Every structure is written in C-alpha cells, then in structure tokens.
Amino acid sequence: SLWHSPELLSDIQDGYSVSGHLLVCFSSGYFIHDTLDIIFNHQSRSSWEYLVHHAMAISAFVSLILTGRFLVAAVLLLLVEVSNIFLTVRMLLKMSNVPSPALYQANKYINLVMYFAFRLAPQAYLTWYFLRHVEVQGQGAFLTANLLLLDAMILMYFSRLLRSDFFPSLRKGSAGRDVDGEKFLID
C-alpha cells in the first residue's frame, strides 16, 4: 500500500487507499480469528498479553475502518509484521536446537535491526505524530491511548529480547530461574 501510494505518508490522518483499507480489514479479521483461537483452545491464561494486544488492535482498526480516518497510521503500524518474520525464525531456531549457532547468531542481529526499523521507528514516529498533531478528544484520544499502551508493550518485549539474546546473564533470578517465566521472547 505504501509502496504504490507513497503520497499517503503526507496525510496520516485523512489519507486513503483501497489497498490500505483492504489490508486493515484483512488484519482485523486475522486479529479476531487469532483471539477466538486463543480463547477456544483454552490458551487465555498463558496468552493474556496477546489478547490485550489483539483487543487494542481490533478496537483501533474497527474505529478507523468505520470512520475512514487514520488509515495510514494503521498501515504504518502493520510494518511491525515485517519484524515478526525474524522473531518467528528466532523462535523456530530455538525450538529446533539447530546445531550450528551461526544461523541463530546471524538472525539475532538481523532481528535486532528489523525490530528497530519496523517496530520501534514506526511506533515512535506515530506516537510523536499523535501527541503533536492529533486532537485529544474523540477518536484521536482513543487512538493516542492505544498507541501509548502499545509503546509500553513493545518496549517490554524489546527488553526481554535484549536480555535473552544479548544479556543472558540478566535473565536468571536469584533462585536460578527465568525472571519472566515462559515468555516466547525469552525461551
């Protein structure tokens, strides 16, 4: 969507493209499906963070689908999915106990770069934009609150990733067990 219509970036609040609209609709469907899958498969307790994230995404995306405003902001937030590729590769490498640590090491650094480029940078830009340019009432206030909560979650996940991959000695608690329990970014 952004590749074919780069002019959208000049109007985050009211920019519109059919491909962006369809992307947000499809993503909303994915979040709804994944939420129902977590609930129906009795994974709510262990996946409560995902449920919170999904509820935030669904409510924000549905509000902008209905109003037609902030579509570009949603498309920018969906850039996060690019970094998920490398997080998933990381998880698969850890689960498969690949005998060659070189592949894991390479992915570790690529993952860090992608996390900055596709998670932290768009999130920081949108937070700045919303705090500076968007009205603090109605839908703007609702989306700003969602962004700030998402900021906290992304920074929490980032700290887990750094502790796990770059500072493993900080992972262990005093009793020798993981501080964060069974979090996928740690394990």
From TrEMBL:
GO terms for cellular component: plasma membrane. Pfam families: TRAM_LAG1_CLN8. Residues 1-170 form the TLC domain. One of its GO terms (biological process) is regulation of membrane lipid distribution. It comes from the Eukaryota. It is a multi-pass membrane protein. It is found in: Membrane. The keyword Membrane applies. The chain crosses the membrane at residues 72-93, 113-131, 143-162. Its main location: membrane. Keywords: Membrane, Transmembrane, Transmembrane helix. PANTHER family: CT120 PROTEIN (PTHR13439), TLC DOMAIN-CONTAINING PROTEIN 1 (PTHR13439:SF5). This is TLCD1 protein. The lineage of its organism: Eukaryota, Metazoa, Chordata, Craniata, Vertebrata.
